[in-house]
Fold each of these.
Amino acid sequence: MTKPDMSYPDEEILTILKEVKTIALIGASDKDDRPSNEVMKFLLTHGYDVIPVNPLLKDQEIAGRKVVASLKDINKPVDMVDIFRKSEAVEEIVDEILALNHSPKVIWMQLDVIDKKSAKKATKAGIKVIMDRCPKIELLRLNVVKR
């Protein structure tokens, strides 16, 4: 299966990573060997306020941050939702995002997470969408310094 073209200009990625401050990380894991755990810790050390979202770990802590069950349980607006789930789960997540009182500026789908239909729906609602990318990799590649 070939992936759709998802070329994002470096300037667009850079602007997002510089403007975003609060990130809801869906699919957060408490296991140190999981990519979502590694990325969450990396983002925290680079000045981002990361809120872990995982219904199975509700009220536990990951990297000192209390886990919430869903986006609606977050009591403040978030700038970006980072999705660490399979592509099949994205449509439901985007619908949940669109039902929030405060929509994020960005929906970021991790490596191999692609849902063009949901991306189009979010874009129509005024939300930027990045698919099949990792913010940690992009921060390192673009040499964005620690805040």
Note: The longest strand covers residues 22-26.
Amino acid sequence: MTEAERRRQLARLCDEEGYVAGGFHPFLSEASVLGAPCTSKAASHRRYREPDNLRPDGSEIAWPVPYWFVDVGCSLVLLLLAAVDAGLAAGLASFPQDRLEVPRDLLDLPAEVLPIGAVAIGHAALDLPSPSLQRHCAVGGVVHRECW
């Protein structure tokens, strides 16, 4: 979305005030574009009930994890990387758990669609670096070889 008032409303729903109080730039309401990545359990099940995804007996594959969240996560990473590749900045803010129904109304989403957050895309605020960029961890803390 590019409409200023809708961006401000979505930023409020993501508790931008809390981000700003924590030292962040108001990156949501001031972004050039806000996107709202969404997922759908029902759409995922519809896809995996298509003939090329069924078991030989015609039943749906029982996946061990809710892949609709994996799918939206992969899509989100691609969006973030595309923004960076275009020379832009991008960041994700999530909706507080108690507000998941509110963005549905603002975005006019169907009942089966679940928004997972808001993605801000625009030019970086170079004068106010993100506090999260100040944190880092050694590769050994997140990469393990052969076993944990």
Note: The radius of gyration is 18 Å.
Amino acid sequence: MTDNTLTALDRLLHIWQPDYNNRQGNVNYLDQGSLTRPQKMPRNQMLIAAAIIAVGAIIGIVFLYNTIWASYQARVQEQQNVAQNLERTGALATVPAMSSIVGLSDADILDSFDEQGYQIVDVGSDDTGLSVYRIPADTSTAEAAILLAGGIGSLTASQATQILNGAWYLSTDSTAGTYVMRYVDFESDSPEAALEAALANQGFSSSSIQDSGVDDAGNTYATGTGVIGDSTRTWKISTIPFSDAYSIAGMPDSAVYVGIRVS
């Protein structure tokens, strides 16, 4: 194999070839020209490099704004919306006493709600009874329909507090003779305090309580009997932290889910 062939093969296998252009006798030395070049970048190249850096900085700033800063702003706005929703009148102020409902026909119940100016959304009434949702006064029925369509668990904290604070849900079953009221108490701070508030709201005296405690599902409850409406009935109030029923990030820890059942 000739020297020219070896040289060609060497160049093929090695993309970068050192420049041995300084030959002294049988020894080849590398070109030292690259070591003697000016160390300072030429002005035009410095301008190009500065422009590239500036563009990169702008892209980085825009990226940070659209991700970290925008996310932070969204969280702050969400917290502000939650706080604003919690300033409105809570559910306890508008939850009707079960004694004013029990024994009435479904039509009479709806008429009484209408007389009191409640905004009511029918969420599934049938021949056996009512399933109605009283929405907050500052929320339209169109908004409520959208928020309730996907279920409470699908809402954000601001949406949940908007549709839940100041609202309640009533279902009746004329066949079984049962009445159930549900709402979220954002003011009592604990299941025990929410239970006491519900007892006072409904006018159930402590002397009528037959059993109380915490059941296997984690509900703090009290149950008893008394004259409700036109007859002696059994009632039960159950409370549980809202976070145990629904997982919604950003919901206040004070939220308590309350259920009142009369049968």
Note: The chain has two domains: 22-87, 91-262.
Amino acid sequence: MRTAFVTEVWQIYVLIFLLNACSAGFTPVFQATIPDILEDEEQYTRALSLSRLAYDLENLLSPMVAAALLMAMSFDVLFVLNALAFVISASLVISVMLPEPQPLEEIPGVWRRVSHGIRIYLKHLAFAVCWR
């Protein structure tokens, strides 16, 4: 099997790992950014619900759309379209101006800061699960 930039099977595994690692890092950062943008709890809840809906629909519809497009065009054309969509998506993400995060009270020590961050993450995660 030989495709663009990939000549061995192990390279596919590395690419899958990198893609999933980036996705695993992006999702909590994205969800933690929503409260900085939307301070109203009702808007925050709605935005979190809509983002989760979009994420789930993308997971369901993307394979179906890809399969349908593969019936009409070659893999190479679909790969180029996917790369173009990625570049457009990345440029839109980079173009967004986020508000400055609200300063927290100073928490001394590395481990206390890490545990504080984990507690905030779990609190937001529990909130997201409850409103799912």
Note: The two ends are 41 Å apart (CA to CA).
